[in-house]
# Entry
Amino acid sequence: MAQGVRDGIYDLLAARGVSRRDFVKYCGSVAALLGLSEMYAPQIVSAVEAGAKLKPTVWLDMGLCTGCTESLAQVDTPDVASIVLDLLSVNYMETIMAAAGTQAEEARTKTIADGGYVLVVEGAIMTGEGGNTLRIAGKTGLEILKEAAGKADAIICVGSCAVDGGWVNAAPNPAGGKGVLDVMPELKAKTINLPTCPVNPEWIVAMVVDVLLLGKLPAMDDKNRPTLIFGSTIHDNCPRRGHFENGEFVEAFGTEAEVKQWCLYKMGCKGPQTMTNCPSVRWNRRASWCVESGSPCIGCGHVYTNWVDASAPFLSRMTDVNLPGLGGVRPETVGTVVGAAAAAGLLVHGIASAATGRTSGPPMETEKAWDKKHKASKGGDN
Amino acid sequence: MSQHAHYRAAHPLIFVFTHYVNLISMIGLAFTGFFIHYPFFVWSMGLARSIHFMLMFILIINLTARIILSFWVKDALLLGSNVVDTDIKNWLPQKENKHQFLETVKYYLFLRKEHVISGKYGSLQKTAYLATIPITYAMAYTGFALYGPAQHWALAPFFNAGTAAVGGLMAMRMIHYFGMWIIIVFTMVHAYLANIHGIAPTKIMFAWVETKPEGH
Amino acid sequence: MARAIIDPVTRIEGHLRVECEVENGVITDAWSSGSLYRGMETVLKGRAPADAYYVSQRICGVCPISHGHASTKATEDALKVTPPDGARLVRNIIEGAETLHSHILWFYTLTALDYVDVVSALSANIADTYALAEKAGTAVADFGAIQKRLKTFVEGGQLSIFTNGYWGHPAMKLPAELNLIAVAHYLQALEIQAEAAAIIAVMGGKFPHFMTSIPGGTAWMPTEEKLDDVLFRWKTVSEFITNALIPDTLAIAPFYIEAATYGGGVKNFLSWGVFEDKSLDPLKRVMPRGAILDGKLELVQPDVAKIKEYVEHSWYSSPSGLNPAQGQTQAKFTSYDTNAQYSWIKAPRLDEKPMEAGPLSRMLVSYLAGVPEVKDLVDTTLTALGVAGKPEVLISLLGRLAARNLEAKFVADKMGEWIMELIGAVKGGDAKFFTEPTETNGQGAGLWEAPRGALGHFIDVKDGKIANYQVVSPSTWDCSPRDAAGVRGPLEEALVGTPIADIEKPLEALRIVHSFDP
# Structure
């Protein structure tokens, strides 16, 4: 490595009050954060030294509510100012960038032309009305995504909307919201999916560190979710799990059981079906998380189908069954009705059988009806 | 059917035993399953789940053993008969069952008067019994898939692939739930049809008491 | 004549395009185009009412609390359930925390870069900066270190989010030292907004998108250790507002005093009222309900039945002129044409008038309704700016900016009262937090306020399912396109008359847009 570059980064760090010694120590903790042995620290040090230039980043706002950007603003390790000023060069991010209009567009097209950037996508890819349900600078959102995706080193889809369309994709999906990999499956090899609504900012930081410092994508599952983050259910890591095992459940909101932090399973908690590490990472600088606040988990980290269709109604144990002509019906109702119908059917059948004298033993046929019919024509047994 | 004899030859003791194991574990599974689905009284979830698991293993081992035994154990292939042969032949198409499926349905819908001729098991009955085999294994699979995602065991990918295929854990949970209702409805219909013409089948299957045809 | 186009408008929530006709350096006509349609109202149909609470918040990631509360209120109105008083306090505090979060973020992160030249801060004299901060009574920081950090950053050549900013633009008026103070507070504000959001997280699970204000009350049960968490986080935020946000506003305003002469817009103001009083009567809300018409500073009561939403200039094929309680939303894109259809936003009108929504509306209505703390704040500020006794100067760009920050101060103080009241109620031991809804049919409206203005959710529940759902959000009011009669929306009207120094860099137009906090 060129001596100049190495000096460059230490000057940069020194200006931010970080000594070389502090820095190597920091790399050790980054290694630990990534679940690696401290052995890897020197490797991270050299990776950072090589990357003395801040990593250019393009953050695309698609069909979004800006909640994931908001969420990013809530992180403190490192804080958002360090991320956008010291770690990355976020050349395009509509919600916080100084430039607007033409000047903003220039910043984006130049970064894309130079290549070697990280692409972050927030919001659903809008395909409705010929893609015109999202228009930016006279183009559709999809066109902008296509321009930006090709030359990106890595693509991080933040939040459920970018992953699979999120709530925008929920039936009947009137605006045609879809996930990045739904519209551009060819990007699978370089895409990281971070579902939940909004995304947990700790995960973005972890992924940025992965991509920047280790220069490679993390271990991921079939839905491109990092397994370290999305490898176990909320239910398994839930602080209320003990109450679940004891059979201690919240039966109504606003009760003593809520104060005692009993289990929300019966209130419709989707923790058993939802795979994220929310209970351990928590939210808003570790202030709290959904279940701790007293609400059941609404399963916003669900993938495969958008989380709203997969988890609503949120205050019920299971989703409704869509029956033609009836709309959504509770699974418990369907089961009970089927069971009761069977019982009623059998009862009627029993009464009818008794009335026709079948219960005491029906007359047995002596020869199969089929044989009788076919014997003549076929001339024998078969 | 009271005209028929129900001899022990048709239902060897070992199958009476496996039938008992089936019944008891299914009742236990349904009960603990309902409890796990929605805990309707105060009890230990851990215990309910452990019993559910244990009964599942018993049911699956029992079912598998029953299938293997059908190649070894000899029993009667026809109603009221003492002539025995390998049990598996009961489950394969028999010439007695030929062209009887629709006729049986017609009989139960009161569209014909006479009860059809068949083997020990009618074709409708045979189909229903055989269908319980994949359903039972599917219940075990879906159950494992619901339990599996958090378990970092060697078979997890096998179950997680299924979860992905059906569209996630919620879909899997609903399949497992409705699978249970299918088994409940099957059991109701089975108990009804087996005893509609008298309780001789119950006597032989539960008490191993034979019923001899009248006048013999 | 030339067109100045800002597309995309950045530093807002969502997607917006603004097109202005400029003649002799002044905007003569303008078009505001909402560029995103997601279909929330259609998605909610057929679902459970409580699901609307959880999902409809996702309309806006900056003001999810207000959408959640408007949705819950609509459902409570429809199903005739009254939330207990404990829940009222919890909701007020959460709503207040969001307001503070949003206003701080809006002023420093979203709007300040229209007025503060970040690059100019490099040439600030550190000693003079401290002197200026002292004089303005605003919070000091390690200005030297911040300038050094900025210097390293700028010299690195990678300007990140400051790339292509309007540095050195002729409309930038602040001295270098004030720019440096603002940059220091820009960084500090990022911390403080997160502290305000953490209050919501403690009481609502997380922010953005919270979990607890379910129809019937709140799922959050206050406990001592949670309440002191809330109290001390509020203190930090409140001190920042008193010691930085307000003095900064007063220090910066004199340099942009000409902004008091334009940008007033349609001069009709609407506030549905926000922050419930014990009576749960919308007319007695802490910031009450009311409207002001044609710039006449007298209070009238808005009639929700007189709202009509027009779609002549929007990309919808559903009928125009419907009241939102019977509203319909059927998307139909044609093409972008400022003479025909040009927006995904409908054009709501109250009694045929375009209405401005937002803190300026709320502060004017509260001022006219005689809310004592609001009267004090406004009168003191007018005196400080040398226009004592002339509240009508607030109807301008500068007024819209100032109103938001003054409101932050008012809400912060009120929040302190609610927190103490809640602590008292919990100590008293008989506070109730939830009433289970039992009805399964009904129609209701949740008329409420988001930080950026009047917000209405309209629900029709049949057999426990949502039969129809409509939302009229503040940006629908403010950024609306022309209506059937061709009357401009509030943002469009406010742009008219704004001077533009450089048509390639229409910074002044951007200021008008940001003043609405869309």
Observations:
- The mean pLDDT of chain C is 96.
- The two ends of chain C are 27 Å apart (CA to CA).
- Chain C touches chain A through 102 residues (CB under 8 Å).
- The CA atoms of residues 108 and 185 of chain C lie 7 Å apart.
